[in-house]
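Hi W., the coenzyme A complex you wanted:
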Amino acid sequence: MAIDVAIIGVGMTKFGEFWERGYRSLITESGSKAIIDAKIDGKDIDAVYVGSMSPGRLIGQEHVGALIADYAGLVGVPSTRVEAACSSGGLALHQAYLAIKSGLYDIVVVGGVEKMTDVSTEHATVALAGASDQEWEAFHGITFPGLYAMMARRHMIDYGTTEEQISLVSVKNHSNGKLNPYAQFQYDITLEDVMNSSMVADPLRLLHCSPITDGAATMILARGDKAKKICDNPIWIKGSAIATDTLSLHERKSITRVQASIDASKKAYGMAKIKPNKIDFAEVHDCFAIAEILAIESLGFCKMGEGGKMVEDGETWIDGSIPVNTSGGLKAKGHPVGATGIAQAIEATWQLRGQAEKRQVKGAKVGLTQNVGGSGATCTVHIFGKEK
Ligand code: COA
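Structure:
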């Protein structure tokens, strides 16, 4: 019989700039909250997976699988760090899912963590650029705002997407982030604020960018039969998929088509046996505002080139036909890179449990998360359901 996998507990820190806190304090806070939420004990845990992109460059600490097991009081438990740039969290979730699905483990902890603000923006930018192609991209001085700026400009030329449409993604995500007590930025911004903010990489401005963030997020997964015994409201993982693309942007046939996202979502929709129009809400990887437009197109919520119009028409707002980034997204909630994929799945869990408070999507039954590494070289897509 196929093994089902459910989420039985979640916990996260507030996202933000926490100079007084360390890496281990963040991940142990989110882990303790998830364990309490799941009502389990440390001795129930079979394995730990943790997504963390660049602790070596950002805080000088490697070997974080063992570090986290140690500080979580889980010495002896198998603990694995997973890295796939900004999709490290999504990939850790996929690995944890596989570990239960294979029959090896019954209860698995999966977390994500990054401590990014102990270093300057320049230092963090170089660390993040480690996710691009060192020989073809980073060596020549281009960083992620520059890569996404090229994708934005090409989308504007090919499809007529406007600066206003791209800016509305940020306006929407701040209006959602305002309702999320865990978000780094809990305030509204206007279209004028975005369009007058300082230029980072033409056409992307400051308020089109996700910030540099500290934070951690943790979930507890369980084998379906166990989950039903210990949890009143398990949330089911209906699809979990990963796909890859070329590491560097210039090798792709099209720089506005996120092929890894198309491929991973097709696999996840197949596993869940549903079509995009059955998704009630989505958390997508808006590291830069254009990335949200590319995401909704690649996930099949609209045709290629129509993402900007979809935002402009209000379809992706909380009361629209497919609410996107109710958490505030990476833009307003913040983007502690290794934690992002797990935080997206936690927002999906809260929405499906009916615990998303003021940002609750009415009647949400099925949600999707999309987590991207680099300019799209790794993409993970998960589909979650209230029912199996
Ligand atoms: N959105 C809104 N406000 C932001 C912000 C953002 N993205 N980034 C910084 N700010 C605010 C800060 O809160 C701060 O406000 P304060 O003066 O009221 O305290 C102010 O702007 C200055 O912050 P600072 O940290 O000095 O900004 P910076 O100029 O050093 O960095 C960016 C701004 C956009 C360059 C930086 O956030 C960045 O590189 N973001 C992209 C991260 C990234 O590439 N992630 C991976 C994606 S693949």
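The chain has a mean pLDDT of 98.

W.
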